[in-house]
Amino acid sequence: MEEILKKYTPVIGLEVHVELKTNSKMFCGCDANYFGEKPNTHTCPVCLGLPGALPVPNKKAIDWCIMIGMALNCEISLVSKFDRKNYFYPDLPKGYQISQYDEPFCTNGWVELSNGKKIGITRVHMEEDTGKLIHEHIDGNGVSLIDFNRSGVPLVEIVTEPDFDSAEDVKEYLQRLQQIVRYLGVSNADMDKGDMRLEPNISLRKVGETKLPPYKVEVKNINSFSFVEKAINFEIKRHAEILDTGTYPMQETRGFIEAGSKTVGQRSKEEAHDYRYFPEPDIPPIEFSKEEIAALMQSMPELPDAKKERFIKQYALSAYNADLLTRDKALADFFEICCEDSGLVSVHPEPTHIANWLINRKVDITKYMPADVIMQIIEASRVAGVDVDELDDILKKVLEENPEVVTSYKAGKTNVLMFLLGQAMKSLKGREKPEIIKEKLEKLLA
Amino acid sequence: MDLHTLTIKEAKSKLKNKEISSLELTQAYLERIEKIDPKLNSFVTVTKDKALQMAKDADEALSAGEDKPLLGLPFSIKDNFCTKDIRTTASSKVLDDFIPPYSATVVSRLMDAGIVHLGKTNMDAWAHGSSTATSDYGPTRNPWDVERYPGGSSGGAAASVASDEALAAIGSETAGSVRGPASWCGLVGLKPTYGRVSRYGVIAMASSTDSPGPLTKTVEDAATILEVLAGKDPHDATSSSLPVEKYSETMKAGKKMTIGIADDYFDGVDSEVVAKVQEALKLLESKGHTVKKIELFDPKYAIDVYTILMRSEVSSNLARFDGIRYGNDRSYFAEEAKRRMMLGTYALSSGYYDAYYKKAQKVRTLIVEDFAKAFAEVDVIIGPTLPTPAIKIGQADDPMFGEKADILTEPSAIAGLCAINMPVGFSSLGLPIGMQIMGRQFGESTILDLAYQYEKETEFWKQKPNL
Asked: B345 to chain A: which residues are within 8 Å by CB?
């Protein structure tokens, strides 16, 4: 790879489809949560493409698409429209997909990577998902079945400029994107469930050149960040070999094969679809006032970068810890509730202490409540601070105050020890572990 | 019972006064269908048992004192409206065995208003045509002369009312498909403003102009039905949320109007048709209306625009009929649909889109503006509906027949205006002639007002075909 990069610079752009987690589908009232559901139970005339059925756009999905655009620093169009993308496939019941062609909701954004590189966002647009083909054998015959539960689920497509020059940057961008949509609460962005589908396009140019190469290769529908990385690196090597022979790689669409971490050709430029886009006549243009866009901007939750900055300032965290805590919004929220709960306790751990505890012990935040964590921290930090003499004094006092109990203990009723233990813990206000107190008491009574 | 002169208003009062029952009325229409439909072929599907049951239900509701706008009245519905549990073919064998699991909004509203549904009427397959010649179930015959077409695409709808097989019919128009057959069959045919009536559940032809509308004997019947059909539908994003007027009352305003006429709308039109329309204009003038000459784009431009836009939309709208989920496969498409799909696919293709589709959209905008300019000067525009009276069976074979026949209705259709066909007399051969009154978008009350004033003076609808 090093040798290749001395000669060529990769030129990489990315198309990402993110499935939104709205309650209902994009153009009908069907339940959009299809994962694991019985096939064809979340369907209606609209998402089955029955004759006469009409699409009515989901306002929430459009708002969420625009919020993604805002989070990616895009310009938001006050007037947009939907278009029909015409092609045949058995999982596409209308024979066209409702998408956006030349007037997407969001354009011209950017994302800054940790190395300071800015990646241009060409567009963020709204479309609908297709059904799913399932190839099976029934009674020994190969059959293709179609599940339309996914048909019409809202999808947002995010397209970047060809601004990446390495698979590592692509991976960081994807992680950021995943983090952003999760922060916005608009998608689970769960790779395993196909919530994010990735399509890098790759080409190489000679080092020092600035013009875009005269070809590009697109790799379709990858569902893992590391596969994208592998696909890109595989392509870089493949292109370099071809370019070394003095020719250009063929412009085509390829698929990623997990076994062998390689890509294979699927469709060449000549076979490319003519989608015959035209404005969707069933949906009037979508218009927003400046006030509506401003209100949407106001409703945006705090995004990862802003939260990280705030954590550094508000909780005096190190940049490193703030970064770790804000990667996952759930963890960041957990941390903040811990800090709040901690404030309620008279002698309480500081946020920096809580942050370290959460990070170092890799606390499973799905198993504990923030209050539990605070108690753990308090307990752990106080055990060490109890003075042995003080402990002795308190325990002796407890025994003096309860002579009858001591007598019955000595007479063989050993279970009264628990009463003495309780009295001692009360006096100690929980400053020592019960096992240690018990041990001491036993010694004193012996 | 004289079915021919029976109107919605009259039938309603007879039902209310218990002079007749809905069952009697329904049986009378079903008998009429049984008797004469073999001659006319107005219906693709007659829903006799369902109709009788609906009539019985209506009679019960009537005795319980229920008051619904169309309670117990027998209607026919064009076969491109999805009807739950009732076969819906759009007169194409592709959908020969298609039974929709849902009803069009128009159908649901009619059912809620209490109609008795007699059956589904024949049409040009997929509404592609202006005669019913392209129906895969054979053409419908014109009740005024069974050797002639009734017009199309809502030809079965028009024939069913003109021949007293139904009290009223629901049709749909993309460009002329209500007005045209109403004209050739001597009926009132109302094409509402685009967006006034929901398209949900209407098998789409050209989505940007499809407009469901009634075919009736009288203006008041049309107004009464429009009150039921019109209004915002949450299932149709293009339906308008403008309030629905009480058309059966607003049509009685008796307003004196300025009527625009444009020479180009009379050019090349059959002389008998021109004469009858001019007679009607004279009559209106004599009643205090003003006729004013205006300039409008030559309607011939609308043919090109309409042909490209409609066929582009058709090519996309028919893509879902792949035979995978329902219906027969694509080999069942007949010639006309295939021609339209091919032309539309071509017009939308990369490299041709700008020259055809985009240009057509631009001209469409000009046509919209042209009408807006005209309506700044006049209240309505009047012209002939079709260039000729009904033509003979077999004379609609030219692939562009429909577009040419509908030349006079296409401009207002692509501008999304409302319009109504009014019978204005008969040709020397005894064939009905129609004129259209075109109004502004959502100007239904205005065109119904003038139509009603004209109807009171003429009552052509009372004349009866000799079947």
From this structure: 276
